[in-house]
Amino acid sequence: MTTLNSILLSPDALVREALVQIDVGASQLAIIVDGDRRVIGVVTDGDVRRGLLAGVTLDDTVEKIMNRNPKLVPVDASDDEIQALMRREVI
Predict the structure, then answer these.
(1) What are phi and psi of 77, to 5 degrees?
(2) Is the pLDDT of residue 64 over 80?
């Protein structure tokens, strides 16, 4: 089971570090947070792949490839609220 702390990275973490987190974690993503642990982006394997194709290297920071506009829900969101968001955003 993936713990939240294991998938949190700072924006200055390397793409290589994000890739390791994505590979070993069950969630298949890395959550990028600021110093106050507020979500500022996410990185998926697709983000890494697109970054590499655009010339980003594994030694660049995740800030260059992260999705800065992830779809988020509150921790206490109900399944109905989550499903509504997914329908609305065509996820």
Answers:
(1) -65, 140
(2) yes
User: How confident is residue 60, by pLDDT bands cut at 50, 70 and 90?
Assistant: very high
Which residue carries 């947070």 as its tokens? 33
Which tokens in the block code for residue 61? 């920071």
* The 29-33 sheet, strands edge to edge: 8-9, 29-33, 39-44
Distance of CA 43 to CAs 9, 47, 56, 86, Å? 10, 6, 14, 19
Cα 40 from Cα 32, distance rounded (Å):
6
The predicted-structure confidence for 2-51, as pLDDT tens digits, reads as follows 577 788 999 999 999 999 999 887 778 999 999 999 999 999 999 999 99
Distance CA 59, CA 17 (A): 9
